[in-house]
Amino acid sequence: MNSLNKIGVVGAGAMGQGIAQVCAAAGHEVLFNDVDLRAIERGIKSIGKNLDQAIAKGKLSPEGKQEIISRIKPATLQELCVDLVIEAVVEKLEVKQAIFSELEKVNPPSTIFASNTSSLSITSIGSRLSHPSRMVGLHFFNPAHLMKLVEVISGNETDQRLIEGLVRFVEELGKTPVVVKDSPGFIVNRVARHYYLESLKMLEQKAADIGTIDALLKSAGFKLGPFELMDLIGNDVNLEVSRLMYNAFDKTPRFKPNPIQEEKVRQGLLGKKTGQGYYHYEKK
Ligand SMILES: NC(=O)c1ccc[n+]([C@@H]2O[C@H](COP(=O)([O-])OP(=O)(O)OC[C@H]3O[C@@H](n4cnc5c(N)ncnc54)[C@H](O)[C@@H]3O)[C@@H](O)[C@H]2O)c1
Fold it and tell me: CB under 8 Å to 125, separation ≥6 — which residues?
């Protein structure tokens, strides 16, 4: 595998921002893309804020911040000729497939294509490519600049030699890679689905309220309660993952999306990113 110097990050939302930050902080040049130019601006601003917090904690110098920010450059999809692309756009198979088809036109066969998908099949995302062996999953967790775990997913067609190199790449980002199989939800999202869905069911059945469920699960050792976590993830993203997993598991009732989360999304109450979800958040 060639060395991975230049990284393309597609999608400047919650996940793309954190991924661009950790890649730039590890010394990589990052080309940052989004269909919405304002999302790139917002993304770079939010990376700046994260880095300010690191400065305040004495973990970074102001010059260090400038160096990291200067490595992140906005780019169009056509300009994204890189060693590794990490895609973090909406959780829709057709959108991800279309992006990688476009990127195949501007990149040599040696460029690795990685998706940050939470639940889609890596094999399906790569199925339209002329070189599907370059397709992998790199599943970062939210917030990506803080969370250590990265699931490294090998699809059916993935060239196995890439996996070893990507494990090293993830370690060099200061993260903990775990190689997993391409099955719906991989490991964490499959298990965690029930953390969300069972809590929603309890709320629906009026067995307990949101604050009580969150408080009790935190006191049982979880870092965030299920409703706090859903608000952090984004209720739209979380619902889409529930829907995809429900379909992937032949509509087995245990993965059925809950009407409460459908209603939140219908009302645009997406969580932290919109200022209101299960909780209210002050705009920064
Ligand atoms: N939110 C989480 O907690 C979380 C955690 C792990 C993985 N993921 C996965 O990461 C991906 C992104 O999730 P997110 O929470 O960052 O979403 P988000 O809604 O915050 O951001 C998505 C971004 O993609 C952009 N976009 C949409 N279509 C595009 C296109 N065709 N080309 C370029 N940009 C496009 C949007 O403008 C938006 O800025 C999804 O696949 C999601 O399942 C999310």
Answer: 93, 96, 97, 100, 115, 117, 135, 155
Identify the CA nearest to 24 among candidates 82, 72, 61, 87. Answer: 72
Q: Considering its fold, how many domains does the chain have in total?
A: 2
Residue 155 Cα to ligand 1 midpoint, Å, equals: 21
Let me know if residue 106 belongs to a domain.
yes
Closest residue by Cα to atom 2, ligand 1, is 233
**Token pair 């909780």 in the structure block, residue:** 279
Same domain for 74 and 166, yes or no, is: yes
The predicted-structure confidence for 55-71, as pLDDT tens digits, reads as follows 999 999 999 999 999 99
Residue 279 is assigned to a structural domain of this protein: no
Q: Is residue 284 part of a domain?
A: no
Other CB atoms within 10 A of residue 67 CB: 14
Backbone angles phi, psi at 106, to 5 degrees: -110, 0
**For residue 253, what are the domain limits?**
190-273
